[in-house]
TrEMBL record:
Protein name (Swiss-Prot/TrEMBL): DUF4170 domain-containing protein
InterPro entries from the UniProt entry: DUF4170
Domain of life per record: Bacteria
Matches recorded under Pfam families: DUF4170
Source organism per UniProt: Allosphingosinicella ginsenosidimutans
Length: 65
């Protein structure tokens, strides 16, 4: 069974190469992609509170189905 994670944080600039230390986020595991997506929405859709250099992704671990 796959597990899903939401990873990211605030990056140093819009190139999104390096995270600002201390802003790293790892949320999960989630049992299905929908729950991970809900967390991704919660983290990314905060108008006026999140800088433009915040970015999160949904990743799945390497386990089989």
């Amino acid at each position: 069974m796959k597990r899903y994670w939401v990873v990211g944080g605030e990056y140093e600039d819009a190139a999104f190469r390096r995270l600002v230390p201390g802003t790293e986020t790892l949320a999960g595991p989630f049992e299905d992609e929908r729950r991970a997506h809900d967390e991704w929405v919660r983290l990314t859709c905060r108008p006026g509170t999140a800088p433009a250099t915040m970015q999160y992704s949904i990743v799945a671990d390497g386990r089989g189905r």
